[in-house]
Amino acid sequence: MIQISNLTKSYGKQVLYRDVTLSIGAREKVGFVGRNGSGKSTLFRLILGEERPDSGIISIPKGYKIGTLEQHLKFTRKTVLEEVATALSEDEIYDHWKAEKILFGLGFTEPDMEKPPESFSGGYQIRINLAKLLVQNPHMLLLDEPTNYLDIISLRWLKGWLRSFQGEVIIITHDRGFKDEVTTHTLGVLRRQIRNLKGDTVTFFETLDHEDEIHEKTRVHQENG
Questions:
Q1: Residue 97 lies in a domain
Q2: Could you tell me the residue range of the domain that residue 19 belongs to?
Q3: DSSP class of 199
Q4: Number of domains present in the structure of the chain
Q5: Which of 86, 128, 132, 222 lies 20 to 30 Å from 162, alpha-carbon distance?
């Protein structure tokens, strides 16, 4: 579980969030929504320690492992299977079947296992990075547009994998259907705050609309009172 307390982050005069307090609970799978530039990817970088907040604290339990999808493509092994196996833990380093299972799910074939990673298209190289991430089995996954390079079959497989994943997940994706089939909660950046509500995207926006309606009625009532 991650706990965020009084988090403020800005770039120059642009304030992304102010005094945000929220938590991601055990086994929560969260879809992250918000307009472009609202600070979704920034929150990922803050959680990963790649950027620092202006103020506030992000509390991460000791030994809690966070994994994210690497966008840069750098491979050190001669075959796809060997490359993905590098991400296995020391105890599992020879359990190549775990790497194979994930690679098959992401659309690789038996002959592909022995091919050099560099021989694949950019999209399939991203899939190799995704396989390396999933095989690590971290406590939390931060996924920024994981569906971009997947076909229908591998999308279906990833959906099932994420549903049965025992840890926490935060997903940024334009594929609302994918997101809503996987997530238990929806996180959203709204007026420099971040809300975490149970339910899918539709429930999230319906709740906000309902709150805005109540707020407006209260305001009108006070003005006319």
A1: no
A2: 1-65+168-225
A3: S
A4: 1
A5: 86
Residue 135 inside a domain? The answer is no
Give the CA diameter of the chain. Answer: 76
Tokens representing residue 91 in the block: 């105890």
Q: Count CB neighbours of 30 within 10 A.
A: 24
Contacts 24+ apart (CB under 8 A), 50-53: 51/9, 53/7, 53/8, 53/9
- Name the residue type at position 106: L
Asked if residue 114 is part of any domain, the answer here is no
b/e map 151-161, b = 16+ CB within 10 Å: eeebbebbbee
Task: List, as own/partner pairs, every contact residues 176-184 make where C-beta atoms lie below 8 angstroms and the sequence separation is at least 24, other chains included.
Answer: 176/201, 178/147, 179/31, 180/31, 182/29, 182/31, 183/29, 183/30, 183/31, 184/27, 184/28, 184/29, 184/30
3-state helix, strand, coil in the chain (%, to 5): 40, 25, 35
Is the residue at 179 inside a domain?
yes
Q: How far apart are CA 106 and CA 134, in angstroms?
A: 11
Annotate 47-59 with b (16+ C-beta within 10 A) or e (fewer): beeeeebeebebe
- Tens-digit pLDDT string for the chain (225 aa): 899 999 999 999 999 999 999 999 999 999 999 888 889 999 999 999 999 999 999 999 999 999 998 878 899 999 999 999 999 998 998 899 999 999 999 999 999 999 999 999 999 999 999 999 999 989 999 999 999 999 999 999 999 999 999 999 999 999 999 999 999 999 999 888 999 999 999 999 898 887 777 777 767 777 776
CATH number, position 175:
3.40.50.300
